[in-house]
Amino acid sequence: MIRAVAVATAAVLATTGTAWGAGLALSTAHLGAGAASTPAMYPVWLQLTNKTNGTAGKVQSGDSITFAWSQQIDETTLCSGWSNSSSSQSLTLQWSVVNGTSGAHDKLQVTGSSSTCVGGLHIGTVDLGSTGYDTSTTSIDFPTTTNVLSVGTSSTTLTVTLNGQVNGTAGTVSSGTAAVWTPVATVKDRSGRACGTNLAQSSATVQF
Amino acid sequence: MHDGPALAALAGLTLAVIAWPGSAAATAVAPSPQQVSGAYAAVSSCGTLSGVGVAWTVTNNVVTGVVLTSIPAACAGGALSLTLVGTGNTSLATAGPVTLSGTTLTLSSLTGSATATSVTGAQLSVVGP
User: Minimal CB count within 10 Å: which of A12, A78, A150, B24?
Assistant: First the structure.
């Protein structure tokens, strides 16, 4: 009997890595750990800027929006007529502030077409974070908006300057939430990595 | 009634235990508790976490939210924690633990500030269910 206890004690001490103690209780039957890949191509920046001497919180010609991606973009996925051989592009295209319905926030998006970009300029949409930018039921259109693409060494920027305002009624927003840019998921970088479902939001809660 | 051989054997085993590397020897040891047990208990993984999809929301190049997809269904009920790491696996931001109720999880509150372009990976852990 005594010999058996001693042998058992020696066995416990000799077993590397064995936990020992009284009242040992495992609280789970499952443990998991792993490293997951993080996005490589994603929207990294969204900024909506009021024009010089413009009315804060009110969309108007001269206001600008800056979109930035984390990588050099494959320009053909943004606009079919663009080529990666050039690091800058320029295009005139209509943008609109589209009135949200049933309590939905107003949105900013491309509504025009261009023979250069067959299928459209695949920028996505911007939830403006308020219902008050367009107080009418029709969209505020900017038909001669300029779109300037600049591809840097490790990122890409599209600067949109609204112009030629017609239709709708612009309201002045005094409080809201951050604007959220939902890019087109299939836009890719030059390594073929898609933008996916990643989002960017503005730091400001009142736009323009 | 003849304990002589048995005691001799115990003495030998005791010396063997004390001589084992790392063993402590002391006089007047008073163990507390008085019962000691040792055992293996098998735990299993609830799934492969390296296949979890990671998408995020970025504000001025800082990660402000993370959406995880394709979480193994067997992990439902477990508590998931996330760490965004940078070069050298240094921790940049953490989230959780949050109890999983499905295969998708949105983490909208992160501790720390992770510049998106500095993040090199996401480390996930699940405890339970």
Answer: B24
